[in-house]
């Protein structure tokens, strides 16, 4: 199961690379066409915006899995093991609630988004904003798995240290700040 999950997240990382590359190429080509030839591709403006939305929301799931989101590590580092585990439990419960609300909001907006078409590409806007289903469900599933492992005592010391920011080397801290 872990292998399948790892492969899925590798696929997501590859998808992020493709979307970001496509966005950069479309914007670059459009800039060259506008300034060099006084023309442009309307579709590239629209698709690059949509790619940006998808990169942001797919990237949020990938970053959450890798513990790369912002945390209040200074406060958590003051606690002992039990305090850190309690903070981890509370934060995962809050994350599940917020991500579930996000999923539900996307569900409530579905009829509106599905009935609207993009101005240039004419694709249904649910293809753009429906990414909220993936993001909400993905974060809920990851947080639920973490919460179950916390409540059953299967959390590792490395995970607790990562939650408190104690496992960060200078290289990892520099990588996170970029």
UniProtKB/TrEMBL annotation:
**Name of the featured protein:** TRAP transporter small permease protein
Q: Does the keyword rRNA-binding apply?
A: no
Recorded family membership: Belongs to the TRAP transporter small permease family.
Q: Name one GO cellular component term.
A: plasma membrane
Record note on quaternary structure: The complex comprises the extracytoplasmic solute receptor protein and the two transmembrane proteins.
* Record's function text: Part of the tripartite ATP-independent periplasmic (TRAP) transport system.
Where does this one sit in the cell?
Cell inner membrane
Q: Which UniProt keywords apply?
A: Cell inner membrane, Cell membrane, Membrane, Transmembrane, Transmembrane helix, Transport
**What is an example of a GO molecular function annotated in this UniProt entry?**
transmembrane transporter activity
Principal cellular location given in the protein's record: membrane
- Which sequence ranges are marked TM in the entry? 12-35, 47-64, 85-106, 126-144
Q: Which GO terms describe its biological process?
A: C4-dicarboxylate transport
- Domain Tripartite ATP-independent periplasmic transporters DctQ component stretches: 23-152
Q: What's one Pfam family here?
A: DctQ
| Membrane-protein topology | Multi-pass membrane protein
Q: Which PANTHER family match?
A: 2,3-DIKETO-L-GULONATE TRAP TRANSPORTER SMALL PERMEASE PROTEIN YIAM (PTHR35011:SF2)
Query: Where does the source fall among the domains of life?
Result: Bacteria
């Amino acid at each position: 199961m872990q292998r399948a999950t790892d492969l899925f997240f590798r696929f997501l990382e590859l998808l992020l690379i493709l979307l970001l590359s496509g966005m950069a190429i479309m914007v670059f080509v459009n800039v060259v066409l506008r300034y060099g030839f006084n023309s442009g591709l309307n579709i590239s403006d629209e698709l690059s915006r949509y790619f940006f939305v998808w990169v942001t929301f797919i990237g949020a799931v990938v970053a959450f899995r890798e513990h790369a989101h912002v945390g209040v590590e200074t406060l958590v580092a003051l606690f002992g093991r039990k305090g850190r585990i309690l903070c981890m439990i509370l934060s995962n419960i809050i994350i599940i609630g917020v991500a579930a609300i996000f999923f539900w909001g996307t569900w409530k907006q579905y009829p509106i988004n599905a009935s609207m078409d993009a101005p240039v590409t004419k694709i249904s806007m649910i293809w753009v904003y429906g990414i909220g289903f993936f993001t909400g469900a993905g974060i809920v599933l990851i947080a639920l798995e973490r919460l179950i492992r916390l409540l059953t005592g299967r959390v590792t010391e490395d995970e607790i240290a990562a939650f408190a920011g104690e496992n960060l080397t200078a290289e990892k801290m520099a990588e996170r700040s970029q």
